[in-house]
Design goal:
The protein has about 500 residues and is an alpha/beta fold. It has 13 helices and 16 strands. The strands form four sheets. It has a five-stranded mixed sheet with strand order 5-7-8-10-9. Strands 13-12-14-15-16 form a five-stranded parallel sheet, sandwiched between helices. It has a three-stranded antiparallel sheet with strand order 1-2-3, with helices on one face.
Length: about 500
């Protein structure tokens, strides 16, 4: 309607329906009676069938005495605003539906990731147990001096294949945990120099086998403690060393630990692993940290590996809020650098931790060890390993028998499998810790359960350390060395010189 058509008219002249006009008149009377303004939003339908949203504002007109002499009414067409609001509500409803679908997809993906991680853990457990037997029995066969050279060669092939399979299983499990964000760090006061020396000691035989020199240079003083997940640090170093040894055929591999500047309460510690291998072309440097990838020119048949080690190393370094980089020159070698921000938490003035060099088997003479293990093959493997270290071994096949054995006998150490019939290793440890004289006796888990959350659960019941299957004899020797005390009261290190 035009302005001229509206001027001088009433609600009846504007085409509203009877009940709508009555509503307007009710509002008019309320305004005139209360002498206050009133605003409403209505959706009146006109007689011609059209619908328009109106904002009605009415106010009383007062004379000087404050008496009502009339009222002013303003009708504002807000149909376009209501249409926009309706469209917005429809879009919000659509977004809500879409968001609900996205949330469901996210939750479904998370459930799938958790299931995949658990499946990987289960597969890892099932593979580790027979691998422990294969590797252990191969080691036993290799010690047979009457074994013909051809047979010895086949045994070494089997042992190497089993160890390679173990690395792939570990890498896949770690990758699965990282993807699901279930891999957590467990930092504790650790001496980075000592941890580095221990890892080098474990890796040295691999370097020696290829005729490579393995050197360590450090500017971080011995005994300085940092808040560090020592197990993950050792894994990073093992991966970098393993990669260097794999691709280096001659020369030297040098490990450096360099102390840097301090920022925001943390010291920048740089770990470098330098090799004299073939080097990496500049256009291939970005590929070395990708999953299932080996750079061009590397023959996987000769060097092996699934292409996961460096990818996992990069993820671990980033989880520790550090940076991993590589510098390389073809024909000269490569340098992998790890920069870690670490908080110094003090100094250790106690005796140094045992290394493989100080853990010679004869030093464990007289040590009494209880082994709780239900698998017959694993029993044989662990007994052979311990007997070569002059350890007195007692074997039981379940957790209940382990509890009964420690009640009747005195042991210096208990090696506890976790999954056993009748009574599992966790509950057996809990019951053993209730025996007063066993409150401080070291209990070490021998387990194929590789998840870090499982290891924390083991520690919560009184298990000091965890050795993952397949059991590495050097790792076992290091463990025994940390807990062994000579009959005269001196620890193993005192008489190792």
């Amino acid at each position: 309607m035009s302005v001229d058509e509206v001027r001088g008219g009433t609600d009846y002249d504007l085409g509203f329906l009877e009940d709508q006009i009555e509503f307007f008149h009710t509002c008019d009377r309320e305004v005139m009676t209360s002498k206050t303004s009133l605003t409403n939003v209505v959706e009146p339908q006109q007689r011609d069938g059209q619908t328009a949203w109106l904002s009605t504002s009415k106010a009383p007109v007062l004379d000087r005495a404050g008496e009502v002499t009339g009222l002013i009414g303003v009708y504002t067409d807000i149909t376009h605003l209501k249409d926009a609001e309706h469209q917005l509500q429809e879009k919000m409803a659509a977004l809500s539906t879409s968001h609900g679908a996205l949330v469901e997809d996210r939750d479904s993906a998370r459930r799938a990731m958790r299931a995949r991680c658990q499946r990987m853990a289960n597969v890892s457990h099932e593979l580790r147990t027979p691998m422990n037997g294969i590797i252990g029995l191969c080691a036993e066969l290799a010690e047979d001096h009457d074994l013909p050279p051809a047979a010895r060669h086949l045994v070494e092939i089997v042992r190497h294949s089993a160890q390679s399979l173990r690395v792939v299983v570990d890498d896949l499990l770690d990758l699965s945990k990282i993807d699901e964000r279930k891999l957590e760090l467990y930092p504790r006061p650790s001496c980075i120099a000592t941890e580095t020396r221990e890892t080098l000691s474990l890796m040295r035989p691999l370097a020696t086998e290829k005729g490579l020199e393995l050197a360590l240079k450090t500017s971080v003083p011995e005994g300085v403690l940092f808040n560090l997940d020592a197990n993950r640090y050792a894994q990073i170093l093992r991966n970098l060393l393993g990669n260097a040894i794999k691709f280096t055929d001659s020369g030297c591999i040098t490990v450096r630990i360099l102390a840097g500047s301090s920022r925001a309460g943390a010291e920048e510690i740089t770990l470098e692993v330098e090799d004299t291998g073939p080097g990496i072309a500049s256009d291939q440097l970005d590929l070395v940290f990708e999953e299932f990838t080996q750079v061009a020119g590397c023959d996987r048949r000769n060097h092996g590996g699934a292409g996961l080690g460096l990818a996992i190393t990069k993820r671990l370094v980033e989880l520790m809020e550090g940076r991993l980089s590589v510098e390389s020159c073809v024909g000269v070698g490569s340098i992998f650098k790890v920069l870690l921000p670490l908080s110094r938490v003090g100094d250790s003035h106690g005796p140094a931790k045992q290394t493989a060099a100080t853990c010679a088997p004869p030093e464990f003479d007289g040590m009494r060890v209880l082994v709780a293990e239900d698998n017959i093959v694993n029993q044989r493997v662990i007994v052979k390993l311990l007997e070569r270290m002059d350890v007195a071994v007692t074997v039981v096949e379940d957790g209940a028998a382990a509890v009964e054995s420690v009640r009747r006998n005195k042991f210096d150490l208990v090696l506890m499998d976790i999954q056993m019939p009748k009574l599992d290793g966790v509950e057996a440890t809990r019951r053993i810790r209730q025996i007063p004289r066993m409150a401080s006796t070291p209990i070490v888990a021998l387990t194929a359960s590789a998840l870090e959350s499982d290891k924390e659960r083991f520690r919560s019941v009184g298990i000091e350390e965890v050795i993952a299957k397949p059991i590495d004899s050097r790792e076992l020797a290091l463990c025994l060395g940390r807990f062994y005390t000579k009959p005269n009261g001196q620890d193993a290190q005192d008489n190792s010189s």
